[in-house]
Amino acid sequence: MRIRALVLAASGAVALSALAVPAAQAADPAGPAVTFSQLKVNNGKNIVVGSTAQVTVSATYTVTKPADLDPNSIQTGPVLYRGATLGENSDDLLAGDGPGTCTVSSSTVLKCSAKIQFRPKSSDQDLDLFSSEAGTWKLGALAVNADSGITWQGGLGSTHLQRKATLTTDASPEPVKKGRTITVTGKLSRANWDTNKYAGYSTQPVKLQFKKKGATTWSTVKTIKTSTTGALKTTVKATVDGYFRYTFAGTTTTSAVNSAADYIDVR
To answer: How far is CA 90 from CA 32, 45, 172, 222, in A?
Structure first.
């Protein structure tokens, strides 16, 4: 089990640092008596990360606490996790580089926001993403008190952490006579977080779409699958001037993407 998460140091002015969390810390000492609700990460959208650049997303959440608990005595933050439960039994944990920022809404309610950073493979491997980690993650949160006791709460939703996809389209020949054959090629690739490069995404269904010149909507011509290298190739008959594009619906591990449109002049 590889655990990567943020330990929130609540005492004094100790800065937060991203460290491996020993399982024992999840149970001893006891954490603050708080509960979390209304957690939303990246405004409910999928988290899409390319091959090299760090991606930072926002999160908002509510903390409910005892009236006599000083909000300055705790630090909190959202967590992404995999596994049946959040804490010592989680397969993986991901959290931000710093704690959330909270404002007092009432004697028992805090309204909070936080940032979570996602990094493809780099020199700091303890904080890196690996391609195998793309997919569905559950959402939770944690709180730490001055004694470094941790309170975990899972079951606050889920999100998809996705490898960014790219897609190209090239229709030829151009111009073309009406009734002749048009060959439409392209390639579907996705970010590899292990190599910091893009590589072809094999055997994926991709739609070829057409939009007549002057029209506003696309229509699907056919669906084909990418080759073992992510390549696309099919043929259609030239009818009228317009645009071709490939479109990929995405998977749990890979983002949806539309290619740029390629114009065909039919004469």
So the answer is: 20, 23, 51, 43
pTM over 0.70: yes
The closest alpha carbon to 188, from 155, 230, 143, 130, belongs to 230
Residue ranges in the chain assigned as alpha helix (H): none
The residues that bridge with 49 in the sheet, in sequence order, are 163
Above 90 in pLDDT, residue 147?
no
Closest CA to 264 of 190, 204, 212: 212
Cβ atoms of 206 and 246 closer than 8 Å: yes
| Biggest alpha carbon–alpha carbon distance for the chain | 80
Cα–Cα distance measured from residue 220 to residue 162, given in angstroms and rounded to the nearest whole number: 25
Tell me how far CA of residue 206 lies from CA of 157, 215, 262, in angstroms.
30, 22, 16
Chain centre to alpha carbon of residue 40: 13
Token pair of 87 as six digits:
């804490």
| Residue 100: DSSP 8-state | -
**DSSP output for 30-59:** B--S-EEEEEEEGGG--EEE-SSS-EEEEE
Q: With 0-12 CB in 10 A as exposed, 13-18 as middle and 19+ as buried, what is 67?
A: exposed
Query: Other CB atoms closer than 10 Å to residue 115's CB: what's the count?
Result: 16
- The C-alpha R_g of the chain, in whole angstroms, comes to 24
User: What's the mean pLDDT when you consider all of the chain?
Assistant: 89
DSSP calls for 222-254: EEEE--TTSEEEEEEE--SSEEEEEEE---SSB
CA 12 to chain centre: 33
Is the per-residue pLDDT at 130 higher than 60? Answer: yes
CA pair distance 86, 64, nearest whole angstrom = 19
